[in-house]
Structure formats: structure tokens, C-alpha cells
Design brief:
By secondary structure, the chain is α/β, with parallel strands linked by helices. It has 14 helices and twelve strands. It has helices at residues 30-42, 52-72, 85-102, 116-127, 145-151, 174-184, 244-247, 255-270, 272-290, 319-328, 348-352, 357-361, 374-396, 405-411, and strands at 18-19, 79-82, 107-111, 131-135, 156-160, 187-191, 210-214, 225-229, 296-298, 309-314, 331-332, 363-367. Strands 2-8-7-6-5-3-4 form a seven-stranded mixed β-sheet, sandwiched between helices. The protein has a three-stranded antiparallel β-sheet with strand order 9-10-12. The relative contact order is 0.16.
């Protein structure tokens, strides 16, 4: 019987498309795809089975674990394979919280600009009686280790701070924060989804206890990630079932995706320095050129940011409208996190940095990779200023007024974590 597969009609000019939304996801490399195809054809057995072909699969699984651990300077047994960054964040935070509760510690420290995989998990814990303290970030989106040190109490069980922000690209002082947490005896988790494959990470030197990563942010497959758990740190199972992953995460391992993640990460690491240098140069051109547009503000730290991240706010426009107009020009961009792209709320990240609601609503995020070219940059710099001017002209003559943020929150039933503390 012949099975009809769904077909997807893409634009005829897809080959001319300029993709600048790599913070949302990245294109898989040919080498990664080939590695996955070979695994699906040749080693498709269940790695938990006892017969010889299955044990060959188990060996391939452990080889991938070794390679991923090497990037983090971790031991292979400290790596748990998950479905991605969100699951890794959930398991890390819930594990530390449950361990803390057993010792009578239910105070958790984080920031107001974390990914929602972290913030929504913290909301869940608040409803269970935990106290969540969100530190205020500076206008550049960065906190200090001193802020963390001042916030730590006798009953603090966890500090969770993202390595680099997914919207504005600001990189946190992870080593310094890790050192403070280690000295105080507090578990430290970092969401490194945006950093892995783009920045050097050393969990030992940086005193990291728990770390989340996701393959599709560094040209690997979607639906696969990993959680680093320092030896001796207790782990709570989020998914119950079999004894896979040393009884820490149930479910048959997705071997093709795991092998693809290892291949993509190795490739990213092999070219990390040269890619960072080249992509940073393109990023700086975009920032410099687009900043010439009147009433434009750069979001995030000017220097201490991810190599491919550009985030600017244009006063007097709706970022969503600009993204749609760019799409018509064959340019893929975003206003912020893809996980909240259907929300009408201004970015919680930009509001946390002190941006006004109007400026937060006019944000544009362009996230580059090594696949972008000088011609891409030139085309974006040619097109964006005219679109911003067009949108400002339309809004100036329109009776439409954006409702106040509080009204929009209520209309969408928003119920976030408690307001940030200093």
C-alpha cells in the first residue's frame, strides 16, 4: 500500500529568503542530517534490549553522551537526555525545589527576564508554598553576583539564572554567580539554551550544578536536549516509567536525535571562535546601521551579548507589523521569543530592563548565524528604515491607540510571578 505524504507549498522565492531568527531555531547542518539518517537505517534497535544489535545501539548512545559531556567539561554519567530545554529547565528546578523542601528550605532566587519554561515552573512552585524572589536586572539586562549574594538566605534552596537571554542576548556573569552559590552551599542552575554551541561552557570552572541545553539552537534537531546534573546533586523524575537514563528520566531514548545533537554540537564547537568573530562583525554592522533610524534604542548590553543577537526598539511602531512587512520582503525576523509570539503582551524581558510599554511594543529581534552573509546585512539595512518610516506614518494618522498594559494583562487572564524584588 502506498502512503501519501503531506506536501508543503513553500514560496517560490524561498531560495532568496533571508533568515534572521536563529534564536527561535536553526537550520540543521547536512552533516547532522546525514548522521541521523544513517542511525535510522542501521542502528534502529532499542538500546535497552539485551541482544547484540541493541547493545550496539546502547554503545552509540553512550558515545553521544561522552561527546556532549566533553563540551561541558562534565562526566558522561552527569548528562541526562531530555526532550529539550523546557523539560530540562522543569526537571532542574523541580529537583532542587523538592530537595530543598526536605531540608526546610523553600526560597528560590531568579530574575524577571528568564524564559517562561523557568518562570512558569516558578509560578507552579509559588502556588505550592515556595517563596520566589526575582532580582531586578540592570538596563542592559544583566545582574551582578553581588545581587545574588545579598539575596541568598539560610532557607535558599536554588538560584536559577539564564546564561544568555533569548530576546536581548545579554550574557550573565555565570562564573561569578556560580562561585557565590558554591560558597554559600546553594544549588545553582543555568538555562544555557541560547549559549550552548555559541559560547564556551565549563561546568566545573563555573561552579554550575545544573545546566539545560537544546539541540535545535545550534543546528541540531528539534525535540532533543540535555540536562547536566553535577555528581551528588539529587534529581527528581519528572517523567515516570522505565529505568532509562539511570532511572532519572523514563522513556526510550531518541537515538537519531541524540546522535544528531552530538554531531551538531561538535561541529559548532569546532568552529565556535571563527563563527563568533564573523557573526559578531555582521551583528555590529546591523546595530550601527539600524541605530541611525531616529528614536531607536538598542536592547541588551552593547558588548556583552551573544554573537548573533540584535534587538532594537523603534518608537511609534508595532513590532508585529514590522515583522509581517519584513516577511513580505522575504526576511524572517521576530519581536522576541518564539514561545510567546502569539501573545499581544509587550516582552516581559524588555519591561524588566525598564523599557516603556511603547518601546517594548516596538521591538525587533534579528538573530544571525554563520549562514548569514554580507549581502543579507546590506539588504536588511536597505529595507528596514523605509518600513519603520512607513509604519510611523500610518500610525500617526490612525485613531488606534494601544490599550494600557494592565488592561491587556487582565483581558488575557495573565497571572505572572510576583513583582520583582531588588
Amino acid at each position: 500500500m502506498t502512503v501519501a505524504l503531506p506536501t508543503f507549498q513553500m514560496r517560490k522565492d524561498t531560495d532568496k529568503m533571508i533568515y534572521m531568527d536563529n534564536a527561535a531555531t536553526t537550520k540543521m547542518t547536512p552533516a547532522t542530517i546525514q548522521t541521523m539518517l544513517l542511525s535510522m537505517e542501521d542502528i534502529w534497535y532499542n538500546p535497552s534490549s539485551l541482544y547484540t544489535p541493541a547493545q550496539k545501539v546502547a554503545e552509540a548512545l553512550e558515545d553521544a553522551r561522552i561527546r556532549i559531556a566533553a563540551y561541558l567539561n562534565a562526566s558522561p554519567e552527569e548528562i541526562i537526555f531530555t526532550s529539550g530545554g523546557s523539560e530540562s529547565d522543569n526537571q532542574a528546578i523541580l529537583s532542587a525545589a523538592r530537595t530543598g523542601a526536605q531540608a526546610g528550605k523553600q526560597h528560590i532566587i531568579s530574575t524577571a527576564m528568564e524564559h517562561h519554561a523557568v518562570l512558569h515552573t516558578l509560578e507552579k512552585l509559588e502556588r505550592e508554598g515556595y517563596e520566589v524572589e526575582l532580582l531586578n536586572v540592570h538596563s542592559n539586562g544583566i545582574i551582578s553576583a553581588a545581587q545574588v549574594e545579598r539575596a541568598i538566605r539560610e532557607d535558599t534552596c536554588l538560584v536559577t539564572v539564564m546564561y544568555a537571554n533569548n530576546e536581548i542576548g545579554s550574557i550573565q556573569p555565570i562564573s561569578e554567580i556560580g562561585a557565590v552559590c558554591r560558597e554559600k552551599g546553594v544549588t545553582f542552575h543555568t538555562d544555557a539554551v541560547q549559549a550552548a554551541g555559541h559560547l564556551p561552557i565549563d561546568v566545573k570552572a563555573q561552579s554550575i550544578d545544573l545546566l539545560s541545553l537544546s539541540a535545535h539552537k545550534f543546528h541540531g534537531p528539534k525535540g532533543i536536549g540535555a540536562l547536566y546534573v553535577r555528581r551528588g546533586v539529587p534529581v527528581t523524575r519528572v517523567i515516570e516509567g522505565g529505568d532509562q537514563e539511570q532511572r532519572r528520566r523514563a522513556g526510550t531514548e531518541n537515538l537519531p536525535a541524540i546522535i544528531g545533537m552530538a554531531a551538531a554540537l561538535e561541529q559548532a564547537c569546532a568552529h565556535m571562535a571563527e563563527n563568533a568573530q564573523r557573526v559578531s562583525a555582521l551583528r555590529n554592522q546591523l546595530i550601527e546601521g539600524l541605530s541611525q533610524i531616529p528614536h531607536t534604542v538598542l536592547n541588551g548590553d552593547p558588548e556583552n551579548r551573544l554573537p548573533g543577537n540584535v534587538n532594537l526598539s523603534f518608537k511609534g511602531i508595532e513590532g508585529e507589523s514590522l515583522v509581517l512587512l519584513l516577511d513580505q520582503q522575504g526576511i524572517c525576523a521576530s519581536t522576541g521569543s518564539a514561545c510567546t509570539s502569539h501573545s499581544l503582551l509587550p516582552s516581559h524581558v524588555l519591561l524588566a530592563t525598564g523599557q516603556s510599554h511603547e518601546m517594548a511594543a516596538g521591538a525587533l529581534r534579528l538573530s544571525l548565524s554563520e549562514d548569514n552573509t554580507q549581502a543579507d546585512i546590506d539588504e536588511v539595512l536597505r529595507i528596514v528604515p523605509g518600513l519603520v518610516e512607513e509604519l510611523r506614518g500610518k500610525r500617526a494618522g490612525s485613531p488606534y491607540k494601544r490599550c494600557r498594559f494592565g488592561e491587556r494583562q487582565k483581558s488575557q487572564g495573565y497571572n505572572g510571578v510576583n513583582p520583582p524584588h531588588s
